[in-house]
Amino acid sequence: MSIGLLSLIVIALAAAGFLIGRQLALSKAGGDIRRLHSLPGYYGQTVFLFTAVPALLLMLLWLLVQPLLIETRVTSMISAADIPDGSSANLVMTDVRRVAEGIDLILARGQLGETDIAAMRADLADVRSRLAEVGVAVGTNVKPGVFEAAKAYRDLSHGGHLALTVAVLALALAGFGYALSRIRPEFRARNVSEGFVRVLLIAASLVAILTTVGIVLSLVFETIHFFRLYPASKFFLSTTWNPKFGGGSDLGIWPLIWGTLYISVIALVVAVPVGIFAAIFLAEYASKKVRAMTKPLLEVLAGIPTIVYGLFALITVGPVLRDWFAQPLGLGTSSSSVMTAGLVMGIMLIPFVSSLSDDIINAVPQSLRDGSYGLGATQSETVRQVILPAALPGIVGAILLAASRAIGETMIVVLGAGAAAKMSLNPFEAMTTVTVKIVSQLTGDTEFASPETLVSFALGLTLFVFTLGLNILALVIVRKYREQYE
Amino acid sequence: RDQIQSAGSSTVLPYATIVAEAFGENFSFPTPVVESGGSGAGRKKLCEGVGENTIDIANSSSRIKQSDIDTCKANGVNEIMEVRFGYDGIVFASDINGKEFAFTPADIYGAIGANVAKDGKVVANTAKTWADVKADFPAQDILMFIPGTKHGTREVFDTKVIEAGCKATGAYDLFLAAAEGDDKAKEKAAVAQCNTLRTDGTSVDIDGDYTETLSRIDANKNAIGVFGLSFYQNNTDKLRVATMDGVMPSVETIAKGEYPVSRPLYFYVKKAHIGVVPGLQEYIDFFVSDDMAGPNGPLAAYGLVPDPELAKTQEMVKNDVAMGPLN
Amino acid sequence: MNDMRLTERAVETKDIKIAAHDVQVYYGASHAIKDVHIDILDKTVTAFIGPSGCGKSTFLRCLNRMNDTIDICRVEGEILLDGEDIYDKKVDPVQLRARVGMVFQKPNPFPKSIYDNVAYGPKIHGLVKNKAELDAVVESSLRKAALWNEVKDRLDAPGTGLSGGQQQRLCIARAVATSPEVLLMDEPCSALDPIATAQVEELIDELRENFSVVIVTHSMQQAARVSQRTAFFHLGNLVEYGETGQIFTNPKDPRTESYITGRIG
Amino acid sequence: MNDMRLTERAVETKDIKIAAHDVQVYYGASHAIKDVHIDILDKTVTAFIGPSGCGKSTFLRCLNRMNDTIDICRVEGEILLDGEDIYDKKVDPVQLRARVGMVFQKPNPFPKSIYDNVAYGPKIHGLVKNKAELDAVVESSLRKAALWNEVKDRLDAPGTGLSGGQQQRLCIARAVATSPEVLLMDEPCSALDPIATAQVEELIDELRENFSVVIVTHSMQQAARVSQRTAFFHLGNLVEYGETGQIFTNPKDPRTESYITGRIG
Amino acid sequence: MTAEATNMPAKARPSLYAIDPRTKRRNAAEKRFRLYGVAAVGFGLLALVVLLSSVLGSGLGAFRQSVLTMQVPLDAAVLDKEGTRDPAAIAKVTTIAYGKLLQDALTAELTEKALLPAGMKPKDVGGMISKEAPAQLRNLVLANPDLIGTTVSFDALANGRIDGFFKGRVTMESAKLDSNVSPEQLELAQAMRDAGLLALKFNPGFIFAPDASELRPEAAGLGVAILGSAYMMLIVLVLSLPIGVAASIYLEEFAPKNRFTDLIEVNIANLAAVPSIVFGILGLAAFINFGGLPQSSSVVGGLVLTLMTLPRIIIPARAALKSVPPSIKDAALGVGASKTQTIFHHVLPLAMPGILTGAIIGLAQALGETAPLLLIGMVAFVRDYPAAPPEGFFDPASAIPVQIYSWTQRADPAFTERASGAIIVLLVFLLVMNSLAVVLRRKFERRW
Ligand SMILES: Nc1ncnc2c1ncn2[C@@H]1O[C@H](COP(=O)(O)OP(=O)(O)OP(=O)(O)O)[C@@H](O)[C@H]1O
Ligand SMILES: Nc1ncnc2c1ncn2[C@@H]1O[C@H](COP(=O)(O)OP(=O)(O)OP(=O)(O)O)[C@@H](O)[C@H]1O
Ligand SMILES: [Mg+2]
Ligand SMILES: [Mg+2]
């Protein structure tokens, strides 16, 4: 039975359980819902959950563990002689699996029976060509040891599979029976099923924690490696960023942090006012029709690939800024600049602020608007003094999200701001960000184990800690503000 | 896994895709998957170990490094085949309507080196226009788009142009004289001095690819950019190429060794996967065959400078000769 | 009850402050106010009474164009404030509402501090010159609304954290702080205890000396106590309008009579 | 007023429905309810009276644990429903609230249709078997809340589009529809006209036959009319609690007396 | 008390029609404010129009392609030397031979029609045909060996430069400088077009064909990329929306307010600021190296993008949940709804618009993301279509943004047009994805 079919059966059983559980609860209450603790559907749900969840979990676990077990068993069968020079048991296992798969296919075609296979010997029969016939390509001739291992692999997995099927179905049935046996009118079915929902919700929020742990883990080892090659003091204190291809680089993080902050700030200076004003206009002033049209249109801005923005910055905005501002003001002749990148990134971020804030503003109760209009406030006064404060927590969230995007953006910075790491106040100079350097150092042609590449990981981790600090700061500030009003 | 997987240099990528495509068309194996992501990352992936979820081939625009080989060994990748399949030429070009230039390495160094030799002394480079560098150049602002330090091209640019220019102008000797320590340290310091470029915006690092450089030249008409030969050949209507030491870059001049700035291209094959991954042997044979990498093959048509010693490579690939220790 | 106060009041001739002619209000297709003619006098307290859902709030909201904010609401007819049509194109509803203040039926304090709630109106209308004056206005408004003693120690606490009746008084204070010429109060005492109610009624009486007050109430007693004129609405119609004394003692319309006599509250 | 009804009622001995001992409620640091002991009888209407802000709503919300939803609110002491501590860990507040229903001070209809507002409770509690029964429950609840006639033609209209008093009655209908054992009503008639008020009072009287009702009101008359027992709160203290007749005619505490005699509304 | 009444600033009664100076100022401020709003929206829309028009302007061409129609004699002597019609033998003939065949066929046809300019070499004539054509012809023959020996009418793509000539990308002037095309070839192409041998046609290959190498931009298509993106988006949608909403419900409604939940909150906000490529690093470490999932597969891409999208969905969803007024919750709790019921029946529907907006923006970003895919091997040249799901999730695939990214890096200018075309496809993809969410959002929107 295939895994898909098995899960289908379990789910079908659970679905049946739902209906039966419902019906059973009703009949135990003599058809009178009022005598039940919970709605009949909840009784059905408990049966569904008890049937499906443990069984599916078991299946998942089994599928994860079984290959490991079989692999170790079969690997131990492969003698050292079967492993070619320079290869590894791991690679031979690849062959074993492929051969086993091929045997299955041969059987499926009905060319040979089980007994033929059992009797087949790799040193006698031309296994490779037989396999080729069924479309399984094997690199070299199949060695007898490998062939035997493949047969054992097949047997074990088939056995395991059978056991899995039996175990899963048994568990499903057991859960089914148990859940049904528990159904009594006073059984707190709703609490059980809601408790389960709660567990799901918690599990969902743990995904975020796990992601963080994963990110830190995947960065930290290479970062340590980096600091073994490159002194941490120079990384954190030096103000020059000048990686060289052949080593001897200066890898001070400060110019990158500076560039990141500068570009992000400019981007937010563009996106936040435009976004908030757009949100206000859409939520408070625009007619329904205009809003229904404009909001999704603005959202397209968030969906345009960043490369388009990058090229827009490079080809259009950069030269314009250079010719109209930088040169006349004597601020330089660079067409790629912090300003260019920030401006264009700001455009990309508009919908982050506008759409999210629009929803929040729209959710402010009408009675507050009425209260303000009733006092003779103009619409703008109402917006500024009543609605924005009421919507502030949500708007702050939107701005933080936009800021996060700004910090994480690559393409626009590469094309708009250039790749030069500099610490300068002049917004018309080229600078670059941490993220850009993470990407470029990681995907460069330098050898991987060199500080020039590994610095990406250190940059990633530092940026992580840095933004963590910023977020904590933001949280504290928001809390402080909110305490006043909540 | 049925298909060959390779990863690595974006310079090699076009060649690898051309071969992969032809391979997929003419053989019964699936078309190999070719990833880009940089030579370093490609070699790192190659050295991650042997097995299905590791790649078979790493494309590289520079020679593998000892540290990579060590990583490989540590992860059980004991034998790799090094295959050099051709050369990549590096050219200097400006906008098609730009002025004509005939460079020498010394000119380039004189334009963008941070410190230059002037009357036997080291002085900070203050040249504003090309005319300041060499009298018969036009008085056009100096602006060079050079490959960023992540690029393998930068290494070649540094050694074959900047260092050569540094030596030619005599700056190297001055740096050497000023440096301290033993001979080796002195040399290193001098080379490092040579490789220090101006940071006042006259030389701009490009971390992206040649299309970015082209777009930047579009936005700054008086700039000079550094390109791969193949890229230039596909854009001869937009770029005006400069000669180097009086030689026009072309597949022929580079193959003959007349044009100085070029570098070899490689791919590295995990030997343990040969015979395991279907079609791998056929693929590498096909890659270095005359039909592909030869002077009349599609790779050369695209701009690859064919390896004069291709026959030797073909022989080596046929026999699966693993690479020896790095020399 | 001290209904005697009715007799105390001499019914002087007063200017007409608001004149409504032929007012119709529709919510989408439903006709909520039908053909209402009413003249609201200056320096007078006018009470609107009538069964729940008869259109009192709706009509009240017409008087300072608060209905503009409801999309589906449509107002027809003419409403004149001091002889000027408030629905005229030239009229700025903002200026109108500054002159015609409103206390809503459901208390709706802003999510701001108590102080800021009250200071809001004076600030936007520029009624004060400095912080000290503002403090004075806030205090006197809160005192008038009989809330000062309860909140004087926590002016910085959020207005939304008050009890129901406190919120209602806060809204009254907020409306009073802008010193409008006409004050529309939609059941201002519904959540108030008798003592607070008395204080608010006192405030209304006081306001009458200079301004007009229109009050919606369900308490006949309250109407009798504070108002000089009473309007009785029924199913969107203005059934009867006249001297409060007359309405309560000698209603002309049988509907008024039956409403009054069924009096319980 | 027909205060005579007070004497009509024989004060039978009734079971204690809710017993509160030593209840303290804090909002953050402020102590809103102090040391309240009270026994609420079964099949009885209990009125809570007291000046605005004295803690009536707060205490009422303790009785069905609605205070759980306010973060800063902390309840101490013991409240027993039928002898079981409602603040016990084992108690499911949901089940508790199904048994102890509530009408809030500010009408808060769901932004759904009128029908769905009323049908919600019966649906989630499984009180009905089919649509027809549900329809019947909705109709009878709306009738009890004296709203049926006004809304029967627009059951699909949103509940938020009703007038203030209609919303209040809608909330009463919603609470009644789940037929709770105890009904907590926080000023249920504050926005109602006398006739609707009378109808709601009638409903309360009717409910009393089977259930307990606790009603917060500012109208002494209403308390006298509908309740058998009255509790007077002042500044968070339960000052006096006893037979309604006794409280109104012969209060023991001087504070009660001064509140009662200052009666106006 | 009465004393204070006189303190009331006694005001003159100005006419309602005459707007007093202060109101005038306030109205001016109001107008300005409104204008800022209009300007903000206008600015956004203008940017959109500029960006879209540049994309459309350079990308629409990708949907049309020059096609040569010619008669090709399938010479048995070339294609099946032994004459056995043995498929294995026919398969031995490579595309090079087919290329020759096509070149000869076209030369012959042009000579016959007297279109061939004097002195033009057959190689130049062959150069006008796409390098994809031999492969197509070969596949045609392999699929139907009986064709050998007959003459077939064959539609071949024209070379990218020839195609560019008809789209205005290549001109006679540029051809003079161009080493890949000559003015003579362009003249010939024009002549062929006049003779009806060459036409610009709608190009389904752009949407359905797989990527092609640098030598044949005219044949490059988005088929594999569209499938890959669709698979990934399916995974992202199915995982990130429920998980994100569930997490935000837990955090906003259930979680006790303590240090730990603060930590989660900050942590999620921080995850949103993690550069996307770091998620690629994570994906490589967690899913490929640790989890053993295959490289370059859409399942890994989908999972990585899910992790990346989650915080971007959770943050707006939490804000939306927070903005639901507590009185609604009270109302539901008051009639005895459980917390879960309250949330799912009342709070969630009211928060839905905000949640959907977050999803729209989060998914839009995920759809356009390239960087994290770099490290998990999806920024790759993939020509074989992934199988149908679920197996197909594990096959190598590309993605639309990846295709855009790699096309913009290619040397041949014809790829620029294709990259813009791909952006159009991406935006259409996005609009299709969004429109559902937008419709849903409008349904849920209400004021209370
Ligand atoms: N959410 C809250 N946060 C802080 N303080 C509160 C909150 N709710 C009520 N209070 C305070 O607790 C006290 C009692 O409030 P409660 O709402 O119980 O009064 P009440 O007796 O119902 O008054 P009213 O008749 O005006 O409704 C008041 O001083 C009030 O300001
Ligand atoms: N926003 C609205 N949308 C649709 N109908 C409405 C709206 N507001 C009120 N109505 C309807 O208009 C009629 C009059 O409502 P209004 O609020 O004026 O009554 P009211 O006299 O103030 O009643 P109450 O004393 O209960 O507050 C009612 O039938 C009500 O249902
Ligand atoms: Mg009303
Ligand atoms: Mg209260």
From TrEMBL, chain A:
UniProt GO BP: phosphate ion transport
Membrane topology: Multi-pass membrane protein
Keywords assigned by UniProt, alphabetized: Cell inner membrane, Cell membrane, Membrane, Phosphate transport, Transmembrane, Transmembrane helix, Transport
GO MF term (any one): phosphate transmembrane transporter activity
Gene3D superfamilies: MetI-like
Record flagged with keyword Acyltransferase: no
Locations listed in the record: Cell inner membrane; Cell membrane
Membrane-crossing residue ranges in chain numbering: 6-25, 46-65, 161-180, 200-221, 261-285, 297-321, 341-365, 386-407, 454-478
Family: Belongs to the binding-protein-dependent transport system permease family. CysTW subfamily.
Protein name: Phosphate transport system permease protein
Organism name: Paenirhodobacter hankyongi
TrEMBL record, chains C, D:
PANTHER family tied to this protein: ABC TRANSPORTER I FAMILY MEMBER 17
Cell location: Cell inner membrane
Bilayer topology annotation: Peripheral membrane protein
Organism classification: Bacteria, Pseudomonadati, Pseudomonadota, Alphaproteobacteria, Rhodobacterales
Protein name per UniProt: Phosphate ABC transporter ATP-binding protein
One GO molecular-function entry: ATP binding
Protein function: Part of the ABC transporter complex PstSACB involved in phosphate import. Responsible for energy coupling to the transport system.
Recorded superkingdom: Bacteria
Record bears the keyword Translocase: yes
Species name: Paenirhodobacter hankyongi
Pfam families per record: ABC_tran
SUPFAM superfamilies named among the record's database cross-references: P-loop containing nucleoside triphosphate hydrolases
One of the GO BP terms on file: phosphate ion transmembrane transport
Start and end residues of each ABC transporter domain: 18-260
Keywords: ATP-binding, Cell membrane, Membrane, Nucleotide-binding, Phosphate transport, Translocase, Transport
Keyword Amino-acid biosynthesis among record annotations: no
A single Gene Ontology CC term: plasma membrane
TrEMBL record, chain E:
Sample GO molecular function, one term: phosphate transmembrane transporter activity
UniProt topology in membrane: Multi-pass membrane protein
Domain (ABC transmembrane type-1) ranges: 226-437
Highest taxon above the source species: Bacteria
Example of a GO cellular component annotation carried by this entry: plasma membrane
Matching SUPFAM superfamilies: MetI-like
A biological process from GO: phosphate ion transmembrane transport
Annotated localization: Cell inner membrane; Cell membrane
Record's keyword terms, sorted: Cell membrane, Membrane, Transmembrane, Transmembrane helix, Transport
Transmembrane intervals: 33-56, 230-251, 263-290, 296-315, 347-368, 419-440
Family listed: Belongs to the binding-protein-dependent transport system permease family. CysTW subfamily.
NCBIfam families for the chain: 3a0107s02c
Name assigned to this protein: Phosphate transport system permease protein PstA
Organism: Paenirhodobacter hankyongi
High-level lineage: Bacteria, Pseudomonadati, Pseudomonadota, Alphaproteobacteria, Rhodobacterales
